[in-house]
Write a structure and sequence with these properties.
The protein is an alpha/beta fold. 34% of the residues lie in helices and 26% in strands. Strands 4, 5, 6, 9, 10, 12 and 13 form a seven-stranded mixed beta sheet that branches. Strands 3-20-15-16-18-19 form a six-stranded parallel beta sheet, sandwiched between helices. Strands 1-2 form a two-stranded antiparallel sheet.
Length: 411
C-alpha cells in the first residue's frame, strides 16, 4: 500500500492506495528550498526605492493581508513587513485582514492596530476605476497614504490566477460591489472577472504589493515587490513554471484534495478546484474529492442554482446569457456528476451532498475507494492529486507529444 496525505481543513487526511494500481501522484516537481524566504522578502522590500520613499513620506500606512493558507507564514511575513516599515517610518500602521487571509490574532503585534474587514460594514469608500459598476472598498485601506498588500499568487482552475489578485476585489470590497462583480454580467466571460480584479489593483493609488508563490504550500519560491503592473508578470511566470505538471496517462480513478482551509472551507470553494481532477480522469471514470466543508455548501446562490435540479445544459445556457460566477460553478458540478461518479469526503450531511448536489457521500477516502473499485473494477488505475488548488495540469497524448493541452473552456 502507498499512503499519501491530502490537506483537509486545518489538518490532513490519508489516502491509502494499492501500489500496483497507482498510476501517478500528480503534484508539481518542486525543488527543495535553497534560501531563507524571510531574507528574500526583506531584500524585495528594501530594494524597492519607490516603496522606501513612499514609506518615509506617509503618515497613515495600511498593510492588507491577502489569501495564504499558512498562519505561521502569514505571521512571519507580516512581522518582516512591520520591521521594514519601522526602520523608515515612525507612524502608526493598520493591519487589515481579508476574509480569506490567515488570522494573525489581535495581540500578535504590539502597538499595531489589527482590523478584520467586514463586507457589510458602512466603513467603505468609493474608488474611481474603469469598471462598469461603482467600486466600494474598505475605507481604512483607501484613506491610507501608503498601502501594502501581502499575499500569494497561485493558479485558479476557473480564473487563471487567484489569491493576491483577490485581495482588493472581492477581499476588501463591499457586499454590493462583490454582488455586482459576480452576478448578472451580460457579455462577460470568466477571464473578464480576473481582468477586473487586476484593474482594481492598478487603480488604487499608492499601492504596493509584496507577492510570492508557494508551489508546495510550505515555502515561498519567488518574491516580487512593487506595483501590481510591475509584479504580476513576474509572479504569473513563476506560477506557470513551478505549478505545472505534465502527464501522459489518465486514470480510471482520481483521488484529489481541494487544498485544505480556506480552499475547502465550503463546497462552493472546493468546486473551484474540480477541473484539475477531471483533467486527469478517463471518460466514465470516478473521482473522489476530499474537502472538509466546515461551512457547509457555502454561498447561498451556489446552493440555489444547484437545488433547482436542472440539467447541465440548461444551467450552462443561463450562464452564457448572463455570467454568474456561482451559477457557473453549479453548472460545472452538474456536468461533472452527469459524466462521472463524483464522491465527496466531507463533514456535510449526506442529504445535501446527494439530494441537492447529486454527488455521492463518504466519510473516508478508504470507504469511497472500496466502493469505487467495486464499480470500476479491482484492476482500475488510480492517480492521486494531493492538492488541486496548487497545480496546473497539462495532459499530452504519448503518441502526440506536440499536441496542445486541453484547458477548461471559457464562457
Amino acid at each position: 500500500m502507498v499512503e499519501v496525505w491530502l490537506p483537509y481543513g486545518a489538518s490532513e487526511i490519508p489516502a491509502r492506495l494499492p501500489a500496483e494500481r497507482l498510476l501517478e501522484i500528480l503534484r508539481p516537481d518542486v525543488p527543495s528550498p535553497t534560501e531563507d524566504y524571510l531574507a528574500m522578502a526583506r531584500r524585495a522590500l528594501e530594494s524597492n526605492d519607490a516603496l522606501v520613499a513612499a514609506a518615509k513620506e506617509s503618515r497613515r500606512i495600511c498593510v492588507a493581508l491577502g489569501s495564504c493558507g499558512k498562519s505561521d507564514l502569514t505571521l512571519s511575513l507580516t512581522q518582516t513587513v512591520l520591521e521594514f516599515l519601522a526602520h523608515v517610518s515612525p507612524n502608526p500602521i493598520v493591519i487589515l485582514q481579508t476574509p480569506d487571509s490567515a488570522s494573525v490574532g489581535q495581540n500578535a503585534f504590539s502597538s499595531t492596530e489589527i482590523m478584520q474587514h467586514n463586507p457589510s460594514s458602512s466603513s467603505m469608500a468609493a474608488l474611481p476605476a474603469k469598471t462598469t459598476f461603482p467600486i466600494q472598498l474598505n475605507s481604512s485601506l483607501l484613506n491610507a497614504d501608503l498601502k501594502i498588500a501581502v499575499g500569494e499568487l497561485k493558479p485558479s482552475q476557473l480564473l487563471k490566477f487567484e489569491g493576491l489578485t483577490d485581495t482588493l476585489l472581492p477581499g476588501l470590497a463591499s457586499v454590493g460591489t462583490i454582488k455586482k462583480h459576480l452576478t448578472d454580467r451580460v457579455g462577460l466571460k470568466l477571464d473578464d472577472l480576473y481582468k477586473e480584479r487586476v484593474e482594481i489593483g492598478n487603480s488604487v493609488p499608492n499601492l504596493f504589493i509584496l507577492g510570492y508563490t508557494i508551489p508546495d504550500g510550505l515555502n515561498p519560491a519567488d518574491f516580487a515587490c512593487g506595483t501590481f503592473a510591475q509584479c504580476l508578470p513576474i509572479l504569473e511566470k513563476s506560477v506557470q513554471q513551478k505549478f505545472t505538471k505534465i502527464f501522459t496517462k489518465k486514470a480510471d480513478i482520481v483521488v484529489m484534495g481541494a487544498g485544505g482551509n480556506p480552499t475547502d472551507s465550503s463546497l462552493s470553494k472546493a468546486i473551484e478546484t474540480l477541473p484539475a481532477g477531471l483533467s486527469a480522469l478517463k471518460k466514465n471514470g470516478s473521482l473522489i474529492l476530499a474537502a472538509e466543508c466546515e461551512n457547509g455548501h457555502g454561498d447561498g446562490e451556489f446552493y440555489e442554482w444547484s437545488a433547482e435540479g436542472k440539467e447541465a445544459r440548461y444551467l450552462e445556457a443561463r450562464v452564457h446569457r448572463r455570467l454568474n460566477y456561482n451559477g457557473f460553478k453549479a453548472s460545472l458540478l452538474r456536468r461533472a456528476v452527469d459524466s462521472h461518479r463524483i464522491y465527496l469526503v466531507s463533514t456535510m450531511p449526506d442529504h445535501y451532498v446527494e439530494s441537492v448536489f447529486k454527488m455521492r457521500a463518504s466519510r473516508s477516502i478508504s470507504a469511497a475507494l472500496q466502493t469505487v473499485q467495486r464499480v470500476q473494477g479491482a484492476d482500475s488505475s488510480i492517480s492521486v492529486m494531493p492538492n488541486g488548488s496548487r497545480i496546473i495540469t497539462e495532459f499530452i497524448e504519448p503518441s502526440k507529444p506536440d499536441q496542445t493541452p486541453a484547458h477548461l473552456p471559457s464562457i
